[in-house]
Amino acid sequence: MSACRTAFDVLPDAEITTEANPGTVDEARLRALVELGINRFSFGAQSFSPAELRMLGRLHTADAIGQTVAAARRAGIANLNLDLIYALPAQTLAGWRHTLQQAIALQPEHLSLYSLTLERGTALRAQVARGELPPPDSDLAAEMYELADALLADAGYTQYEISNWCKPGFECRHNLTYWRNRPYLGMGAGAHSFEGDQRWWNARAVPRYIERATGDHAPHPHPARAGGETIDRRLAMGETMILGLRLTREGVSLPEFEARFGLSVADAFGPVVEKLKALNLLQEENQRLRLTPPARLLGNQVFLHFLPE
Question: Which long-range contacts (CB under 8 A, 24 or more apart) does 5-10 make?
Fold first, then answer.
């Protein structure tokens, strides 16, 4: 933190987030982090079901989530996020309702809800492939999503992104930077950065990163850089559409898109947009293009239309 403040003009109200798993930080540690200037905390709760936590290989208990949140409040933390996962194998709608109710009872300012993805190489994917666990049910996942939206709305949360809900004024500012497709700088092993038509990433292995970052690699301006890519105009326009449409309230600003690319959305994607409107997947209002509520369940299918062939 000291190095960041020395190297950059950090605004007094800058959002500074750290992530932790429940049960891994106590009140003293949290107070120390607050004293460093960290003002937003995100806890990987995932579930309030002991069985689901075991299935996910999580080390914390359901009770530890509440204990960690209570410790955070005592430490003076006023901006908390909880991550939750739904569409787990064998998860029921009633079980998901219980997790949501437990999370809401803790009154976090922000909630991120992610549908399970069976990533290659994970234990869960292997268990499903062997028939030890049932595959996720897409219809049930849709019911879980709609239940979450209803319960969170009743509790005073507003959805502002496909997977994110918050109390008024607690939108995640650093994630808004990504969804608005604006530049960001990543520091540390494996960190990604984006500026102009360039996207690049650092060495993932910590020893390799340290060696590259501290060794004598002059005159290379980015010695820890492991790779990168140039983003052409067509891809940049598509990514701006995809990322912007994730913002359920904000959507894509048609004037901002044209100012950025010198081309209107109609000129760039006219037939696609009209087709998606006809299918009730996109709506245009006040010079903004947004997903319709039903389309939030079909986001990936919509987004594919904006990628280069």
Answer: 5/37, 10/37
Amino acid at 232: D
pLDDT at 133: 86
Q: Please give the domain boundaries of the chain with CATH numbers for all domains.
A: 2-172 (3.30.750.200), 181-230 (no CATH), 233-306 (1.10.10.920)
Phi, psi of 175 (to 5 degrees): -70, -30
- C-alpha radius of gyration, the chain, whole number: 21
* Buried-state track 18-51, b at ≥16 Cβ within 10 A, e below 16: eebbbbebeeeebbebbeeebbbbbbbbbbbbee
pLDDT-derived band at 121, boundaries 50, 70, 90: confident
The whole-angstrom separation of Cα 123 and Cα 129 is 10
Sheet holding 192-195, edge to edge: 192-195, 198-202, 225-230
146 backbone φψ class: left, alpha, beta (φ>0; ψ -120 to 50)? alpha
Residue 172 pLDDT more than 80?
Answer: yes
CA 91 to chain centre: 22
Residue 219's pLDDT is 57
Q: Is 257 helix (H, G, I), strand (E, B) or coil?
A: helix
Element containing residue 69 per DSSP (H, E) = helix 62-74
pLDDT surpassing 70 at residue 55: yes
* pLDDT for residue 196 is more than 60: yes
Which pTM does this prediction carry? Answer: 0.92
Q: Which of 36-45, 82-91, 123-132 has the lowest mean pLDDT?
A: 123-132
Residue 272 host element (H or E): helix 265-278
| The pLDDT value given to residue 136 | 84
CA-nearest of 255, 242, 256 to 291 is 242
